Amino acid sequence: MHPARQRNELDLRGRTDGTSERFSDMDILDLRECAKSGMFYGGRAGKKEGIVYKGAHWIAKYPRSSRDLAGKHLPSYTSSPVAEYLGSHLYQMLGIPAHETALAYRGGKIVCACKDFTYPGKRLFMFSELKTEMDDDDDGFHDSPSDGASVYLTDVLLSIEKSETLSNIPGALDRFWDMFVVDALIKNPDRNNGNWGVLMDEDGRYSLAPVYDNGSSFFSKRNDSTFERRLGDSDAILQDAFGTNISVYLAIGDDGKPRHIHPFDYMRTTINADLDRAIERIASAFDLTAFENLVDSVPREAYGWRVLSEPARESHIELVKARYEKGLLPLADAIARRRASAQ
Predict the structure, then answer these.
(1) Residue 25: what pLDDT?
(2) Strands (E), 32-183
(3) CATH number of the domain where residue 273 is located
(4) Is residue 182 part of a domain?
(5) In what residue span(s) does the HipA-like C-terminal domain sit (predicted)?
(6) First vs last Cα of the chain: how many Å apart?
(7) Which of 8, 62, 209, 274 yields a CA-CA distance of 20 to 30 A from 267?
């Protein structure tokens, strides 16, 4: 642990139920005896198991094996459970509803236990499903408007505007831009159209689903030796904070070809009032000390398994700090100056 930082109790604000909890070093839940719920969950990021914990339905998300992943020097398993936990709690700390998560032990692995926010009586509709209601005769789209997989940013924004369902849900566009900014802060490159959506209750009323699927954040496929090697290199820190930080969303480049957006470059060069407000919201709400305490509350080991190594711990803090201090704060200052000069 960095000598300047000590483990303190952590105030986890912004929980979806409006309550708050305080933690020091967290307990890793023992879910070995939990019965299966009989529920099944989709996705491609590793094993998911429906279980019953304290009378409620939860999802045990296991780390994904790296055997079928591209890249060199990968760990045997990703650190996606820790990434899911940290990313979801950071969203909550910012006051953005996110699914309830806890680190746990089950099936011989450290997993992320995620409370099933659809149980009981709700159904999740992913944004990819909402897009299928779009009229393919609508103009202004790169891909077919009803293509649920299209991640051209202009298509996504136009779909939010034109979707009959989303246009009737307060705060839908704000939620999208909040996720865009926070995902840049935690380096989540996988906010695809299946990783956010809306809930429908038994009376057919719609509301925004809490933020979920944050397991690709925080370089979850990186091994400890790479974390350690790059920590001592200031250029590598900046490269990891910004250079390799790309979004799932596409834009057309100067050569006419689609390119993945670099979110901080996009935020710096784009004037969009809704995006500007999201930048200011997140920059104002983010508490670096609280984030450090969150990361420090995760134990190094539990049940004989590594949970969070010291190099990974320090890297998570240093990279988020760099993105906040050298990315978000300058962006928020530039927005304030631009607003002042326009008055």
Answers:
(1) 57
(2) 48-53, 56-61, 101-106, 109-115, 123-126
(3) 1.10.1070.20
(4) yes
(5) 54-222
(6) 47
(7) 209
